[in-house]
Amino acid sequence: MNCRSFILSLLQTYGGSIESATKIQKLAFLSIRENGLTPFTSFKWHYYGPFSKEIQDTVEVLKSQEIVSEKEINRVSYSGKKYAIKRLSLTAKGRRLAESETCRIDSDNEAALLGTIEKYGDKPLAKILDYVYKAYSPEDL
Q1: CA distance 30 to 36
Q2: 117 and which of 16, 26, 51, 121 could share a cystine (Cβ 3.0–4.6 Å)?
Q3: What are the structural domain ranges in the chain?
Q4: What's the pTM?
């Protein structure tokens, strides 16, 4: 597994889109740390916790190749503050590629990915970030 196959498989398994690249980062970290996904990148502590430059760069490449699209969505926080997220979605080309990438994942990695999605997939990014900040620290990386 590499960053490209993880991102495509995650998006495919997640239904084709995800609320942000930050959520991809955290789900990758949690898949590796908590569910036994074969490590495919390294993480450093950054503004929003564990961060992989390789994942960030791969998302940008997938966008430039029109495999993944990005759409800004305006939101309002619980406190009434306005903010925007960037939803990432597979394009038609991306869906075709993701189907073939998903078929190539071994059963252990597939189980790790599904376990992460089952546990964290329906949680908003804010809840995942809160959990990661409480459960992990820069020293853990």
Answers
A1: 9
A2: 121
A3: 3-140
A4: 0.91
Query: Residues with Cβ < 8 Å from 105, sequence gap 6 or more?
Result: 1, 5, 9, 113
For residue 49, which phi and psi values (nearest 5 degrees)? 90, -150
For residue 96, how many other CB atoms are within 10 A of its CB?
Answer: 12
| Dist CA 98 CA 103 (whole Å) | 8
Query: Could you tell me which CATH number the domain at 3-140 has?
Result: 1.10.10.10
How far is CA 17 from each of CA 22, 23, 140, rounded to the nearest angstrom? Answer: 13, 11, 29
Amino acid at 33: R
The residue written with tokens 């992989």 in the block is 52
- Per-residue exposure over 74-85, b if at least 16 CB sit within 10 Å of its own CB, e if not: eeeeeeeeeeeb
pLDDT tens profile 17-76 = 999 999 999 999 999 999 999 999 999 999 879 999 999 999 999 999 999 999 998 988
Residue 122 to residue 90: CA distance in whole angstroms: 18
Read off the tokens for 101: 């990438």
As given in the structure block, the two tokens for residue 75 are 């939101």
